[in-house]
Amino acid sequence: MKIRSIITLIFVMITSIVLSVLVPSLIWIGDKVETDCDCNETLSIYNDTSYDYLVYNPSEEQIAEMKADAEAVVPMRSIEFGIYFGTEKIYERIIFIEDTNDIKYTEYTEERRLLGNGDTPENFLYIDYYLSKHYGVSLGDTITVNMGDKKYDFIVTAVYRTNPNGANGACLAKFGEKIKNALSVPASGVYVATDDKSTFYERHLANYKPMALVKSREDFTTDKAYEDWLKDFNNTDPKRYYKEKDSDKADVVKQTQEKLDTVSDNTLFASIICAVILLVGSILSLILNIRMLRSDILTGGTKKVILIYLIAHVLMAVLAIVGFIIAFAVIRSQLSFYYTLNEIMGSQWPLLLTAVFAVAIGCLVNCIFIRGRREKRSKPPKEGENA
């Protein structure tokens, strides 16, 4: 083949590859990947945790009463601190629990762990992937936390899926003796796991009041102010003071599935667009060279021309896949969610398969056309025609 033909072939195919990767990636694929991640994070709280209720601000007496009717009642203290990530200081929530054996009843279960082995030395700190991603925190890093007029160092031993009970996630640490001495605070809430939710609800939550928040008359300047507060406290819906994990599970699962179905439809459309671009590019590479095709066949032979187009199409398919892998890697680098490249490729395999199929069809059409041109040129003249 002439150099001009080869240059045209390469230019058209590279352009097709770039367009077939960029158009779906910019418009559909990024949204699909992020939606998948978001839905996985949402469903993980329902599927990968074992607590049933998160009850806020109970008194010590209420905690003791709950323990009689539950498999586990795990007190926790949720406090916002100034945390140093390297030289950058942010305000983030840390959840403290006293017994590390109770971690399995929190959001920080083994199923939700992404990185690390979950070691629990005295100064361990579990962080969300959101924090790890945005502040470049890695396993083994030392995190400094301001607690009043003192600073304490924690070691990151594990990274978990984002905790939805924090504005931007939350961290988990042990409420050890050193921390107890620095923070004299009551429990912010308790994680409750129970085998008999109906009984627990009737006995403890139907008319629940967070007694740790109760104020006395001395906290107010007038009797009326105290009476108004007391009336408001007694009339507040108990559901405001606790969260039943599975109360809205059916609705959330339905909404999540609708989101997944929508982006799946978009991915199918993206696959079709990608296939059309590659198929058009494949056929266009031959059309632009059609004037030189006869000369290429005469000088190089049909088999050689077909072989060149076959090699070009194989490279086209390979480069398209490589292009998508690069696009997936770029998309993944922008996510606040933990999503491996293998997981992305696994969810996007129809797109990759469609790309390869489109190139194969284009190659077949081109080879058939080239072979037809050869047959037409080699066909003997009819009787009466000039040879």
Q: Care to describe what's here?
A:
This protein has 2 domains: 167 residues, no CATH class; 192 residues, no CATH class. The mean pLDDT is 86. A hairpin with a 2-residue loop joins strand 2 and strand 3. The longest helix is centred in the N-terminal third of the chain and has 45 residues. The protein is α+β, with helices and mostly antiparallel strands. It has a 6-stranded mixed barrel. It is elongated.
Main sheet overview: 6 strands, mixed, barrel
Please work out how many helical segments DSSP would assign: 11
Estimate nothing, just give the exact number of structural domains: 2
Mean pLDDT: 86
Q: What's the helix-strand series?
A: HEHEEEEHEEEHEHHEHHHHH
Shape: elongated
Q: Regarding quaternary structure, how should these chains be classified?
A: single chain
The largest beta-sheet arranges its strands as 2-3-8-5-7-6
Helix and strand composition category: alpha+beta
The rounded distance between the terminal residues' Cα atoms is 27 Å
Radius of gyration (CA) equals: 32 Å
Strand content: 15-25%
* Fraction of helical residues: 40-55%
Spans where pLDDT lies below 50 across 5 or more residues: none
Short description:
Helix content is 53%, strand content 17%. By secondary structure, it is α+β, with helices and mostly antiparallel strands. The chain folds into 2 domains: 3-41 and 251-378, no CATH class; 53-244, no CATH class.
Which key terms come to mind for this protein?
2 domains; 10 strands; 387 residues; alpha+beta
Per-chain topology:
Layout: H1 3-47, E1 53-56, H2 60-67, E2 72-85, E3 88-97, E4 113-116, E5 124-128, H3 129-135, E6 142-147, E7 150-160, E8 171-174, H4 177-182, E9 189-193, H5 197-205, H6 223-235, E10 242-244, H7 249-287, H8 290-300, H9 302-333, H10 341-347, H11 349-378
Parallel strand pairs: 3-8, 5-7
Antiparallel strand pairs: 1-9, 1-10, 2-3, 2-6, 2-9, 4-7, 5-8, 6-7
